[in-house]
Design a protein that fits this description.
Largest sheet: 7 strands, mixed
CATH topology of the largest domain: Quinone Oxidoreductase, Chain A, domain 1
Strand content: 25-35%
Distance between the termini: 12 Å
Oligomer: single chain
Number of strands: 16
């Protein structure tokens, strides 16, 4: 099979199309013919050598990627929930930038016909991180919730989930993304120096909880605004969370959580913006796009 892999840590250009053996599903596993794979900031951090998921040993050539959608190609012994040809989406720890990936059956859910492949391929990572964060920060109706990096893949979902909870959402973004945030129901604010003061002007009654999906500077501003540090969390800066005393929010992924997000999408309660798609052989360009840090929505690899 073809895969986008890297043989050493480095800049995006180390990510190249590579021929690898076709993986075989073991008991309880499913092999999926991947048609779309989301590109996440963590993928870039792993490729560069700056981050490694806990317990993951990097063996070269390494195939990155943690979210995907496609059709079931083969099932291992004991799998009864999925059949060959079934459209699915799911998640795993690395290995999805490839024509085929093998995953435990309990990390898959059925893909509805109404969901485009590129949306399905990019839903799990950002969607589950946002779903986890909104729950961990205990966002409730009538509260004000600040999201740093609100126009990105995780931020986009978090805005919508918090609004569904009944919260007022203030989201940081560049000026170019302010209308986009308004369309999601958020109050936009420009990030950068003076952020805390600008947020105070928008929320004279105070901010109840905050999520950082972008950088340590936004996390520090959030801690200045929220009285309870247990309700300030980051999905982007584990080192800053430890240093500043904020909550590090790791995504608690599950088929049940992903099923809930799929249901919200099919009911019209969740919008997923895919800003760009790239073919597998252009995976390095997809990483360059994500690493700009200023785009809205998701970047997705498409495979045929």
């Amino acid at each position: 099979m073809k895969a986008a892999a890297f043989h050493e840590f480095g800049k995006p250009e180390v990510l190249r199309e590579t021929e690898l053996p076709l993986p075989e599903p073991g008991p309880g596993e499913v092999r999926v013919r991947v048609l779309a794979a989301g590109v996440q900031p963590i993928d870039c951090a792993i490729r560069s050598g700056h981050r490694r998921p806990p317990g993951l040993e990097i063996v070269f050539p390494h195939v990155t990627g943690g979210e995907f959608a496609g059709t079931v190609d083969a099932v291992g012994r004991g799998v009864t929930a999925f059949h060959v040809g079934a459209p699915v989406l799911g998640f795993r720890t690395q290995g999805t930038y490839a024509q085929y990936t093998v995953v435990p059956a309990d990390q898959l859910v059925a893909k509805p016909e109404s969901m485009p492949w590129e949306v399905a391929g990019g839903l799990s990572g950002a969607g589950q991180a946002a779903h986890t964060a909104v729950g961990a920060l205990r966002v409730r109706a009538g509260e004000t919730f600040l999201i740093n990096g609100a126009a990105g893949g995780v931020g986009t979902v978090a805005v919508q989930l918090a609004r569904r909870c009944g919260a007022t959402v203030i989201g940081t973004a560049s000026e170019a993304n302010h209308d986009y945030l308004r369309s999601l129901g958020a109050i936009p604010v420009t990030y950068g120096e003076g952020l805390a003061d600008r947020v105070r002007d928008l929320a004279p009654g105070g901010v109840d909880a905050a999520m950082d999906a972008a950088n340590a500077a936004g996390l520090k501003a959030a801690l200045d605004l929220v009285q309870d540090a247990d309700r300030v969390g980051t999905i982007a800066s584990p080192e800053a969370a430890k240093e500043l005393g904020a909550l590090w929010i790791g995504s608690q992924r599950s088929a049940e959580r992903l099923t809930d997000l799929v249901r919200l999408y099919t009911e019209g309660g969740l919008r997923i913006l895919v800003r760009a798609t790239y073919p597998l052989e252009k995976a390095a360009d997809a990483h360059r796009d994500v690493e700009t840090g200023h785009g809205r929505g998701k970047v997705v690899l498409t495979l045929t």
